[in-house]
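Task card 7
Instruction: Convert sequence to structure tokens.
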Amino acid sequence: MLFDKQLLAILDRLGPADRASLLAFAEFLQQRGAPSEAPVVPSAPISIPEPVSIERPADESVVAALKRLAKTYPMLDKSEMLRSTSDLVATHIMQGGDTGPVIDQLEEIFSEHYRKLRDGL
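Output:
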């Protein structure tokens, strides 16, 4: 019973996000351990935040666009987009040209990754 009281005391001091994390971890531990007779109650679905609205400056560079998009989509794992974004940036640096189409493509990459995250793909 002392353990139960300690656990409840800790739970009372946690915020909502930390409570959800604790529940998810407890469910993980329960699933990997010996099967129990009690069914596992699924945790609440994860909420994906909306992108931060940051206006695109008229004279934005490709590097500045990457920084803006990283701030616009803080919920995305940038390492998953590294290959496609770095290929675009490298091509632009090597060949030069108008930044507009390159930035449009970067925006599309970030938007597509956000859509996949939101849709659970």
